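Our consortium's second objective concerns turning raw sequence data into structural hypotheses that experimental partners can test. To show how far this objective has progressed, the report includes one record in full. It was chosen at random from the queue rather than selected for favorable results. The single chain below, 383 residues long, was entered without modification.
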Amino acid sequence: MHNRRSFMLGAAGSAAALTLAACGGEGAGSGGPDPEADPSDLTVGVAMPTQTYERWVKDGDNIKAGLEDKGYTVDMQYADDDIPTQQQQIDQMITSGVAALLVASIDGASLSAQLDAAASAGIPVIAYDRLLTDSENVDFYVTFDNYEVGVNQANALLYGLGFLDQEFNEAPEAPEGPLNVELFAGSLDDNNAHLFWQGAIDTLQPYFDDGRLVVPSGQMDIEQAATQRWEQETAQTRMENLLTTHYNGGEELDGVLAPADPLSRGIINALQNAGLGPTIEEGLPVVTGQDAEIASIKLIADGVQHSTIFKDTRDLAEQAIVAAEAFLKGEQPEANDTETYDNGVKVVPSYLLEVQMVLAENYEEIMVDSGYYTEEQVESGQL
């Protein structure tokens, strides 16, 4: 796994060039690429997990628009975070003869039968942001550097607590500690959750080892910290329970590692309801996040949420389209990582995009100046 210490990474470059190696081993079937076909005669199936997360709606819109701009028909389905629904949707796409599949899974290990059917029909499968596991029939993976997301989240926490300076070096006036933190993880059935966690824990471990950071609950395993389906209410309930159980004697909570913005907002609700806050300046613990959702960008602007990680879904959608178009033309998309993403059966060739840490001091530059959000949207906290 990477051990790079790059914190404030710029947005990823534009689409990579395609290599011209021929796609081999694809069996005949009702679907799959026809390099001679006009794009208007080809349909790309896009399976998305849920519309309850703002980012998945943006992902879907960007992919659909980008493929349609190139002339392809798009069959895009959202599964409402229900695994059987997603299985049925992909079955239907395969039966209808899609030329390629882009899949953002709910549970990466739950689609083996569908991936087998796609392979039998000669349909290439691109895993989108979430790795498809336990199957050899995954042709490509487009995602962000998920380990680096965790590193960035941990460094944001350390910066907010005063251990790191603005250059993310050890701060000269760093607190001696111990400071109290609690840890949250994502959904265990999402492979990314494990990478976020590993990147964060690897970065925080020296501070646990020397006692500068302490987890009063003792809940330091990913299984204890996990949040099923990334649900805000689940995170809020767990935070409430932690406060009741471990902070009822005047103990001070200094920070919370939160791996996604909906979880962050649930945690912040629990903290504020317990009388902590209402802002960081007024005593609210430092809370991290991910996905740069508009509601959380407003909280960052208002001094309530400390940070988030921006994964520019415009770039991810663009890279997914590059990969899909390569397969549709009978070519292989270019990978920039052929070692990291072992899905249990094979190492899936991948294209990784970089991420950016968003803080109160840089959210305007990263989120507004880039055109991702308008100032009015940040002020209102709504799109």
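The partners drew two points from this record. The CA atoms of residues 144 and 352 lie 5 Å apart. The radius of gyration is 21 Å. Both points have been shared with the crystallography group to help prioritize constructs.
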